[in-house]
Every structure is written in C-alpha cells, then in structure tokens.
Amino acid sequence: VRILITAGPTREYLDDVRYLSNASTGKMGYALVRSARLRGHDVVLVSGPVDLPAPEGCEVLRVVSSREMHAACLSRFPQCDGVIGAAAVCDYRPRARLPGKIKKTGKGLQLDLVETEDILATLGRIKEHRWIVGFALESEDARPNALRKLESKHCDAIVLNHPRAIGADDSSIELIDRSGETAGAWTAEKAVLADHLLAWIESTLGGD
Ligand code: C5P
C-alpha cells in the first residue's frame, strides 16, 4: 500500500523574516512514517519545517507554507491509496507577504489574515476509492468538532487529540470511524499510537 503522510507545522510568512506558525514538532507524523515503513508500506512524506531527520526508505517532500503543502499533496495523492493528515497546517495566512522587514512605527499593527486552502478537504473531493484519515486537535467541544471535520473533509476516520500532544513524546488519542463510533482509544508513546493506527487502517480500510 502506498500512503501519503503529512507532518509538522506550516509557516505563513508576513514579510521576508517573520512568519505565523505553531509548535508542532512533526513527531506523530514521523512516527506514522516509521511504523508504515516497518509494516511494509510505501510512504510519501510531505513535511513542514521540523528538526527531525528525514526518514529513510521513503520519498520526502519538504515544504514550508500551507500552499506548498497543498501543491505537494495534490501532486502525490493520485498515486497513493490513502492519506494520513498529521500535519498541523496553519488555518490562516497573511493576505500579502511584504518584501523586506516590516518597520516599527510606534503604533499597533493589524494583520490581515485569510484562510488557507484546506488540504484534506481538497483531497476529499478527489478521493474516489482512496481513504483519508485526518487528525483533529481540539481544546473544547472536542468530539462534536472532530465529527464535523470527519464529515466536512470526507474522512474515513479522524484521530482526536488534545493540545497537550504538541511536542510531547506521549499522547492520548481517540480514533473515530466514519460512522462516528469509537474504533479505539489509547494513551501511549507516539510510536505505539502510530502502530495502532496503521493496524486499524490495514484491517478496516484495506491496507494489505
Ligand atoms: O486544522 P483542522 O483542525 O481543521 O485540521 C484537521 C485535519 O485537517 C488535520 O488532519 C490537518 O492536517 C488537516 N488540515 C489540512 N489543511 C488545512 C487545515 C487542516 O489538511 N488547511
């Protein structure tokens, strides 16, 4: 099985030196890559900027912005059987990237932000026989929000996790299937969680 995996944060530049981003380290996505490789799958990793070494034995596309991640995913998804969206893609980017470095003026500065393109939602529209597993990092109304994302992004499953997961080696996740049922809930190291998720994908979404 050929699996597209997104990992890490994106950066959305407001001028040539400053960007908006988040504290994602890519650990969950890279753990999924390792687990998928060990289980004998082909992997294409689309990674935002992280400090982790590139995993061996898979194609790695390094990107910076959500727009680049979107383009990289669109180019590889048609050759894959499914996608796991573990990246913490920025939801907003500055409307314009200004050249040089924005100067201080002694007054406040208002940023004009626009929504980024939703990568999984785009892939959901062209998925055909392919499967999509998304992540939902939620701080409140977690389950209803995760279910909404499952639906709107045409996911086959969604992995609900908590902001505590960011940068941590361990995490607590709930795997929710397409019907909204809990398919599994685990607290463990990300390497172990990755293996649980891949095992479920193989048995339920046809990963053999
Ligand atoms: O940011 P949000 O909570 O909507 O993210 C849920 C899922 O959608 C994650 O799997 C994330 O990788 C993906 N996503 C995306 N493109 C975005 C925002 C999120 O693919 N612009």
Task: Write out key terms for the chains shown.
208 residues, 8-stranded mixed beta sheet, alpha/beta, binds cytidine-5'-monophosphate, two-stranded antiparallel sheet, 27% helix, 5 helices, 12 strands
Give a description of the structure.
Helix content is 27%, strand content 28%. It has an 8-stranded mixed β-sheet with strand order 5-4-1-6-9-10-11-12, sandwiched between helices. A two-stranded antiparallel sheet has the order 2-3. A two-stranded antiparallel sheet has the order 7-8. The longest helix is centred in the last third of the chain and has 16 residues, at 190-205. It starts with a strand and ends with a helix. The chain is globular. It has 5 helices and 12 strands. The relative contact order is 0.18. It is an alpha/beta fold and 208 residues long. A hairpin with a 4-residue loop joins strand 11 and strand 12. It binds cytidine-5'-monophosphate. The site of cytidine-5'-monophosphate has 16 residues, from helix 3 and strand 9. Residues 6, 66, 85, 87, 89, 91, 116, 118-120, 134-137, 149, 153 line the site of cytidine-5'-monophosphate.
